[in-house]
Write a structure and sequence with these properties.
13 helices, about 350 residues, alpha/beta, 3 domains, Nucleotidyltransferase, domain 5, 5-stranded mixed beta sheet
Amino acid sequence: MKARKLTDNEISLLKQLIADKTKTKRETQRAQAVLLINRERGMEEIGEMTGYERSQVFELRKNFLQTGVESLADKRQGKPKELLTKKQRDEIIETVKGKTPQDFGYAADYWTTGFLGKWIEEKYAVKYKSKISLYLVFKKATFTYHKPGRVYDKHDAAVVEQWKRETKPRLKQYWHEENTVILCEDEMILTTETTMQKVWLPEGEFPKITCTTGGRKRRSVYGFLNMKTGQEHAFKTEYQNMYQTREILQAMRKLYPTQKIVLLWDNAGWHKGSVTQEYIKQDGSIVEIPFPTYAPEENPQEHVWKQGRTQVTHNRYIEDIDVATDELVKYFNETRFPYSLLGFQANPIS
């Protein structure tokens, strides 16, 4: 059963605890974790901000709902026993800052909690039971958590930076225009091929996901993220072409009948096709801002796709492509996505 949302009084109590300077760092982080999960923030973000794993966050929320802020108080008294000396901790931090796992024979270019924990165990004969201590090492080394992303071989960082410098002033102007809507657009393809994502299970259990064995079926989804509100507009289609794109733009115009539309999208052929461009010209109130080529990471709509796949279609056997696509579109259209674009962002979920 889905846990209930926090009441205004409970949220107020958590905020008071966070603002209380007499509380310990751990107590503050526990309160932050409960508040962030109530705001439906992603687990990666919560982990980065508080150091807690998924199971720990849900346990904190359950305890808080049952017994209140007392459940977030420190239970241990006095200073905990140190597993490493200060000199050893300093050595570890300097190692993380100055070397990579490859320097110690591991086949990796970047540090992870797994590689760090293994190296500490081998060198100092200390094995941490929780990743929190490892998170603190990275924090003291001024490292932040990142999930590696794709970089296209034709990606030009200089072009992207120039685009940012040129686009940000324009975006600032449009952001403050009351009757102007700023939309980031992209398309995705959903197929009946099963996609996998890592999951957490009790030790000794192994997941098995049914996969497609027949021919793949596919559907397209057009998505428009309203940057000022965080509202998503998603449409299921059979194809991606300039005729279909024109129909989708006509549907968007019905949603925003009198507003100027600032449309940020990539340089796909169906965006630049004659039919699409003719409609934009006839409309007269659509301003196009193309994203730089080979830089999908600049488009917030990419994050919407990722969140939708994680919540709806990953680790799932898709038997009926239309049912699955309809569920995905429903999730997009009923969920708020306050992602940012060049520093501009809708108000966070409260």
